[in-house]
Specification:
Layout: E1 19-20, E2 27-28, H1 46-64, E3 79-83, E4 94-98, E5 104-106, H2 109-113, H3 119-124
Antiparallel strand pairs: 1-2, 3-4, 4-5
């Protein structure tokens, strides 16, 4: 099944790969997205993504939730899993790091890969 570009003006960009039809009945049509799709695979180019955003962006933000106050990163929610990669070495320094304070909690590789291993579990250990 073909996945077509969602750009509202995609068919208006007059490129050879959009041209279809027999001689005397030519037309331009929307492209398929292809393997390099933009916008999570919904658009064939950044132009088409921009066209969609220009037409629907404000409505989409209002529909899905406009931010009314700034979002703040605090010491409590600044923890991320991180590591230092060393090619061909066993010691990659897996850790939780607080991006605000710089505090670190060491992890094993298994803990790092475990999506259920949270900062709360690391602190309790």
């Amino acid at each position: 099944m073909n996945k077509y570009c969602q750009g509202p003006n995609c068919h208006q960009y007059m490129t050879q790969d959009r041209k279809r039809g027999m001689k005397g009945a030519k037309y331009f049509q929307t492209r398929t997205v292809g393997k390099y799709g933009y916008g999570s695979g919904s658009f064939c180019t950044m132009n088409c993504l921009g066209d969609w955003w220009g037409k629907h962006g404000t409505h989409a933000v209002d529909h899905f939730g406009r931010i009314r106050e700034p979002i703040k990163m605090t010491e409590e929610n600044a923890w991320i899993k991180d590591y230092d990669y060393h090619y061909n070495q066993a010691d990659d320094n897996w850790r939780f790091i607080n991006k605000l304070t710089g505090e670190e909690i060491p992890l094993t590789q298994e803990q790092y890969r475990d999506t259920n291993y949270t900062i709360e579990r690391a602190r309790a250990a």
